[in-house]
Amino acid sequence: MPSISREEVAHLARLARLDLEPDELDHLSGQLDQILGAVAQVAEVAADDIPPTSHALPVTNVFRDDLPRPSLTPESALAGAPAAEDGRFRVPQILGEEQ
């Protein structure tokens, strides 16, 4: 089992710019030791003959075919707009740029 010392936790805390109290260092060293132990167990299970997977089940494409369909004309799209100009929606200027 991996073991992380109180001094190593203090060093990590300094690198992370954390000001930890002595009792916090003791507490975190135990927690980090448990985390490292769990990671070591996972590393033991991982084998070279097992292919990496991203999903437990096969993923299939569920999209429909992309077929052209009738849509709005520019005039009908702009019919409900509060303001239009040169075949486009006219919106208030927000960045303060010159036109």
Automatic annotation (TrEMBL):
Enzyme Commission designation: 6.3.5.-
UniProt cross-references to Gene3D superfamilies, sorted A to Z: Glu-tRNAGln amidotransferase C subunit, N-terminal domain
UniProt KW keywords: ATP-binding, Ligase, Nucleotide-binding, Protein biosynthesis, Transferase
Class in the EC hierarchy, top level: ligase
GO function terms (MF aspect): asparaginyl-tRNA synthase (glutamine-hydrolyzing) activity; ATP binding; glutaminyl-tRNA synthase (glutamine-hydrolyzing) activity; transferase activity
Catalytically driven reaction(s): L-glutamyl-tRNA(Gln) + L-glutamine + ATP + H2O = L-glutaminyl-tRNA(Gln) + L-glutamate + ADP + phosphate + H(+); L-aspartyl-tRNA(Asn) + L-glutamine + ATP + H2O = L-asparaginyl-tRNA(Asn) + L-glutamate + ADP + phosphate + 2 H(+)
Record InterPro entries: Asp/Glu-ADT_sf_sub_c (IPR036113), GatC (IPR003837)
KW ATP-binding (keyword) present: yes
Biological process terms in GO annotation: glutaminyl-tRNAGln biosynthesis via transamidation; regulation of translational fidelity; translation
Domain of life, per lineage: Bacteria
Region described as Disordered: 68-99
Functional note: Allows the formation of correctly charged Asn-tRNA(Asn) or Gln-tRNA(Gln) through the transamidation of misacylated Asp-tRNA(Asn) or Glu-tRNA(Gln) in organisms which lack either or both of asparaginyl-tRNA or glutaminyl-tRNA synthetases. The reaction takes place in the presence of glutamine and ATP through an activated phospho-Asp-tRNA(Asn) or phospho-Glu-tRNA(Gln).
Protein family per UniProt: Belongs to the GatC family.
Subunit structure: Heterotrimer of A, B and C subunits.
Protein name, entry field: Aspartyl/glutamyl-tRNA(Asn/Gln) amidotransferase subunit C
Species for this entry: Haloactinopolyspora alba
